[in-house]
Amino acid sequence: MSKPDYDGPILEIENLSISFFTRLREIPAVMDFSCTVQPGEAMGLVGESGCGKSTVALAVMRDLGKNGRIVGGTIKFKGRDLTTMSEEELREIRGSEIAMIYQEPMASLNPAMKIGQQLMEVPMIHEGVSKEEAYDRALEVVTDVRLPDPERILKSYPHQLSGGQQQRIVIAMALMSKPALLILDEPTTALDVTVEAAVVDLVKDLGKKYGTSMLFISHNLGLVLEVCNRLCVMYSGEAVETGSIKDVFDKMQHPYTQALFRSIPLPGADKNARPLVAIPGNFPLPHERPNGCNFGPRCDYFQAGRCDAGDIPMFPVEGHDRHDTRCLKVAEIDWNAPLVAAKTTEKAPIGDVVLKMDDLRKYYEVSANALFGGSTKVVKANETLSFEAHEGETLAIVGESGCGKSTFAKVLMGLETATSGQILLHNHEIQSTPIQERSTETVSSVQMVFQNPFDTLNPSMTVGRQIIRALEIFGQGNSDEERHERMLELLDLVKLPRAFAERMPRQLSGGQKQRVGIARAFAGGAKIVVADEPVSALDVSVQAAVTDLLMEIQRENRTTLLFISHDLSIVRYLSDRVMVMYLGHVVELGSTDQVFAPPYHPYTEALLSAVPIADTHVEKKRIVLEGDIPSAMNPPPGCPFQTRCRWKSKVPGGLCEKEVPPFRTLAAGHQVKCHLSDEELASMEPVIKIAAE
Amino acid sequence: MLPFLLKRISTMILTALCLTFVVFYLTNLPPNLEKLAKSEAGSRITDDEVASWLERNGYASPMILRYGEWLGVVPGWTTADADGTVVAGRCIEKGQDPATAARFCGILQGDWGVSSVFKDDVSKIIGVRLTLTGILMFWVMVTMVPVSLLIGILAGMREGSRLDRSLSTFSISTAATPEYVSGVILIAIFASSITGLKWFKGSAASAMDGITFENFFLPVLTIALYGVGQVARMTRASMAEVMTAQYIRTARLKGVSFANVVIKHALRNALIAPFTVIMLLFPWLLNGVVIVETLFSYKGFGWTLVSAAGNNDIELLLGCSVVAVFVVLITQLISDIGYVFLNPRIRIS
Amino acid sequence: MQDLGWSGILIGILKNFLPVWISLVVLFAVSIRYKRRLGLYGKLFDSPIAMIGFALVMFWVFTAIFADLIATHDPLSQISQMKNKLPGTVQPDGVNWYLLGGDHLGRDVFSRVVEGSRIVVQIAPLATLFAFMVGVSLGLPAGYYGGRLDTFLSFLANLILAFPVILLFYLLVTPEIVETGMPQYMALVLFLFPIAFLMVLVNSRYYVVPEFRTKVLLVIGVIGGYLYLSLVGEVGTKVAVLPNALDLIHVPGNILIVFVSVVFVNSPTVFRIIRGIVLDIKTRDYVSAAQTRGERPWYIMLWEILPNARGPLIVDFCLRIGYTTILLGTLGFFGLGLSPESPDWGSTINAGRKLITIAPHPAIVPALALMSLVLGLNLLADGLREESLRD
């Protein structure tokens, strides 16, 4: 079966509208959406959660489920309208002409089927090839996605591979029939940054090699910049701006795009001098969209009577190539006007040491095989952790999964006790006092903000009740009335309306829940707050507001903030000092400036290079790490990073494989755990350069 | 795999010991023993005579010792006459020379005791009865498993469809109908003079000599119906869950046809849960067997259990319990092992 | 007077159930009217399946409540001429009918089935509730703490689950066992759970406000303790604490043993369900948040974890009442525990089955009654599951 030749646009979506039908009402998910993907082009689809970008992708696959329906418009693939095709015709196109890659690699592979079978199935269905030929094809594609030992991989089951490898298999599966269009739905969200960078690199290369057009869906502007030629920004079910990357990034013509860029931490942003500007208000729910411009209620340029008068079409932008925007006032707004700086603040002074960790270790004993028993293994979750944290300081702890940052938080909170070493809190040793034995004062002064906003609040208790409970436990207030009053003040503190006290968590948005979580953490006047990726699960526009709030409370209460994150952009924006961890070891520790400038630890260097930055002026050095993060159950000998380090050859005598490097002081307060000589370290070049305008 | 098996088997043996001890304890309570003494030595005997009868027959020693004797890890009791020669004992059969008798004689030695009602070796009785029940169970499984899996899969593959609705209603109804209800209704419809149908026989007594469709269909159907409901609902739930999994969508969007999505991608994953359920259903089927054998007067294992319990036949009841407990434990073991084998995620990790 | 034809029988039955019809109509009208304000209960009325199930269940509940109004005869009185008479037969004195015929002793089948609903509707939900108390009180710590406690409790649960139910009944529910006082000792332990459960529930939350806590605990202790002693003890048996004058609740030994055995058989399954849910919920961040603010374990188990497990628990509760109904029927079917005179459905089926090929109605009627109640509960559970999964 040969694929017909065709040289028009690969995908043409015109005025597409999609609705979901529930028992109560019709919920429009996508309205009047148009875009075109030319052969070989990579189109980015950007927007916050709930904006309808994934729905568009599913509509192209015609897989909207029972409740979803296309209510208007056409989707033309190579000139044929997908919306009117029969199941039979669709099946011929799916997998052979259009392929899709999803968010969760583990979930998209069949757990009970060998990888080889799952791959070979594709050409066997669509091209009717023999088993042998399909096997050869699978082998070739698996080699193409740069997986080691392809034959072994084909024989294994999905759970035997790491997350990164699984995602490569999903990509391989999509490429088995050399499709004309590849749809990628947040393909790297579930992966660690360094693994993400490698996968993105692969996708780009393969797109070129196979000549595939791509529809790349992401909430991350930085990633879109790296992968795509063009992009389409979506907001609340509509495309608001579409154009080439260069045009949209540098000469944006829609207030939402502008606000989005202003709310993400780009190099140069600073929490004191150039703070982020959060987008006010909340994302409208699908059935509560305003009249006219959906972004209207949150827009700085909003003009009543005009912006909310009626539906707004897309306007082409004069003088740009295929650049459209859905804004009535596009010609009137001065897009180059400098940002009226939001209130800037003085840098808060750093106080005395409040928390000191000295040579802290935490080892776990786990049985090697949960079901079958067997020998126990020691997992070294934290090795020789030493640092100090000062009053009013933000110390960022950076690392990918398995680096030991959560274990460290548990030990500090007293949920686990340390194996050895010391934790000094205001000069009291607390490393071996479990939380039940800690005094109320100690407990209330060290608190935590959790990562997942949808999980941080008890779903069956009102917001107010949850805060009051924290007050009760921390011994605040003498009567129920006092505590109720204090709870309302805490809601004020996190800038939530007092009426929220009576609400159930499910009635709150992610950002609002996170604010309640913060209020709860500060209920006992916490002096040290461990924030475990507090904004990573939030939408970009909400992240800025929550970060801001944390900073503000910190400044007022002189709280020490231990900010755990894998996102170096936000770390650079808000932290005073940075600690980089890898496989239980601290590999680098220093002030933010020191860590973000050479000399780096080789891991920090790779991490910096891997973080996508949504700025066309930034030039990055590409450092792609080989392989995946080793398992903490089975760490490599010697330096933990030696298996992926590109500098390893510069250290004579294979020292890296034999010994854990010592912690060396490079400059005042800047320490690195590396065998590299001073000369080699000095020869490092900056990873990120900002090109002159 | 080996350590896992060892661990499972040792837990199983411990469970079996605990359970048999409980049964032993409950069947050997003073009132039961008194009843036994009266039925063996005459119902009009005095309390003192009861006590001496119990003493002479080895029932006076502490419970735990007697359990050990029954198990075969403690030497069997003996009674000696005045000059010290052994005259009777647990391991001494009538007319046997005490010197040649074995020291231990419990179930570990294969000596299951003698039924006080049937006056025959317990092991022999159980062997015969268990064969009869085995035949019944075999036919139950043959009808139940394919039917229930088919219903579950058909209902679960398109959740909410009309096919699903009707099959689900059917399986809920049968799951709400215990054997003593369905048995009664089936007999009334198909074997009574009221409807006049008389297609099948309301008693399976003749099936003990030769199975015919006419005498065996109703008992098999009665047990199977209830099981079908349970297994089909489980299969449906498991299938419906698998059908919403991301990898099923992947398969669909690879262009795999619906039939192949179900057969190649969904089935194996969906059958893991029902397999365990079918195995764990054995204790339940045992219930069904007891009810149905009583209802249809089919003198199999279940019928024996009931009559032993009703007649205070201690040795026979103990023997039945051992078998029942082992059947349950072995099916649990098979279910565990099968789960591991069906599920590659656990097998290799 | 004439014997009734089928339509006459039907009209007669419908007429006798009048109080039930009125109650059902009122209940449904009110519930549907206010369904949006009634939470999960209100959502039942969005699903036809759940509504049918609920109607069936409530039919029997109302029947049990109005049983004396509905029954046409005394369930125990025998009229020898009416032995095995067909449905609709006129009494010899000609004043009334046996709507659903007479049984082998000449008692009215219809009245016996109606009165029999009382026994099921009283015992099944209560026994299930107790089984839940026991299962929850043990399953929470097993799942939350894990380790040795979990291994031990799970072993115990599996032990009971490995016991063939019928064998257990045959061993436990015998006059000899009642004589030894064993059911009362078991009741002593099992009935302690609800009181302990309530006290821990209150204490874990209100220990921060000691005055209030102490007051509530006292009230629970006094009322609960009195009920406990009154329920468990009985003058003239092995456990006699309260004198007869103070003993409020008299439970005959054979009913107590039935109740205890049913609780005993059900609780390990509840234990396993709870344990599984706890293992899942305890990894949530709000549990970590409670831990990091220094909450005590029982607060976390009872106030943070348990309320969020309510969905699957409510569904299982319905299913389990059905299962308990089946178990009670099984007991009756084997003539265990309940007196042979008792009009409960299991015993009636047992009595009727002997003549089933000649006169099936004495067995069929209670069989259908039992089936419809269990079916109703299963449908209700199914509807609840579907509705709680939605939104």
Automatic annotation (TrEMBL), chain A:
Which InterPro entries would you find in this protein's record?
AAA+_ATPase, ABC_Ni/Peptide_Import, ABC_transporter-like_ATP-bd, ABC_transporter-like_CS, Oligopep_ABC_C, P-loop_NTPase
PROSITE patterns, from UniProt? ABC_TRANSPORTER_1 (PS00211), ABC_TRANSPORTER_2 (PS50893)
Protein's cellular compartments = Cell inner membrane
Q: Which SUPFAM superfamilies does the record associate with it?
A: P-loop containing nucleoside triphosphate hydrolases (SSF52540)
Q: Which Gene3D superfamilies match?
A: P-loop containing nucleotide triphosphate hydrolases
Q: Which GO terms describe its molecular function?
A: ATP binding
Keywords from the named record: ATP-binding, Cell inner membrane, Cell membrane, Membrane, Nucleotide-binding, Translocase, Transport
The way this protein sits in the membrane is described as: Peripheral membrane protein
Q: What is its main location?
A: membrane
Checking CDD domains in the record gives: ABC_NikE_OppD_transporters (cd03257)
Residue span, ABC transporter domain: 11-261, 355-608
Keyword Membrane listed = yes
Keyword Glycoprotein in annotation: no
Q: Could you say which protein family the record assigns here?
A: Belongs to the ABC transporter superfamily.
Q: What is this protein called?
A: ABC transporter ATP-binding protein
Species classification = Bacteria, Pseudomonadati, Pseudomonadota, Alphaproteobacteria, Rhodobacterales
Automatic annotation (TrEMBL), chain B:
**Which parts pass through the membrane?**
9-27, 136-155, 167-191, 211-229, 271-296, 316-342
- Family annotation (Gene3D superfamilies): MetI-like
User: Where does the ABC transmembrane type-1 domain start and stop, copy by copy?
Assistant: 130-335
Recorded hits in CDD domains, A to Z, give: TM_PBP2 (cd06261)
Where in the cell?
Cell membrane
Q: Which InterPro entries match?
A: MetI-like, MetI-like_sf
How does the entry describe its membrane topology? Multi-pass membrane protein
Record keywords: Cell membrane, Membrane, Transmembrane, Transmembrane helix, Transport
Membership in a protein family: Belongs to the binding-protein-dependent transport system permease family.
This chain's protein is named ABC transporter permease
UniProtKB/TrEMBL annotation, chain C:
Protein family according to the UniProt entry: Belongs to the binding-protein-dependent transport system permease family.
- Residues that span the membrane, as ranges: 6-32, 44-67, 119-140, 152-173, 185-204, 216-233, 253-274, 317-338, 358-381
What Pfam families has UniProt attached to this entry? Answer: BPD_transp_1 (PF00528), OppC_N (PF12911)
Q: Where is it chiefly localized?
A: membrane
Q: Where in the cell is it found?
A: Cell membrane
Q: Which residues form the ABC transmembrane type-1 domain?
A: 117-381
Organism for this UniProt entry: Albidovulum salinarum
Is-annotated flag, keyword Membrane? yes
Q: How does it sit in the membrane?
A: Multi-pass membrane protein
Keywords in alphabetical order: Cell membrane, Membrane, Transmembrane, Transmembrane helix, Transport
Q: What is this protein called?
A: ABC transporter permease
